[in-house]
Design a protein that fits this description.
By secondary structure, the chain is α+β, with helices and mostly antiparallel strands. The protein contains 1 helix and 3 strands. Helix content is 18%, strand content 43%. A hairpin with an 8-residue loop joins strand 1 and strand 2. The protein starts with a strand and ends with a strand. The model has no long low-confidence stretch (mean pLDDT 84).
């Protein structure tokens, strides 16, 4: 099962001068339909980008139906 979200977030690894800003639809495979706030979505995005949860700043997200 997959769940789709519209996301807008900034990714910056610790100590980096520059950051990357992303926005668009992400599909999370094997996830239940429940996300419990910004930190939960940041944790999932961080795993996908091989970053720490604290490296992700979520600006906006919404579950797509």
């Amino acid at each position: 099962m997959s769940v789709k979200y519209y996301t807008h977030f900034i990714a910056q690894s610790e100590g980096a001068i520059e950051y990357n800003e992303y926005r668009g639809v992400v599909e999370l495979l094997g996830q239940s339909g429940h996300v419990d706030g910004d930190r939960d979505i940041a944790r999932m995005l961080a795993r996908s980008f091989d970053l720490e949860e604290t490296d992700i700043q979520v600006l906006q997200w919404d579950h797509l139906h």
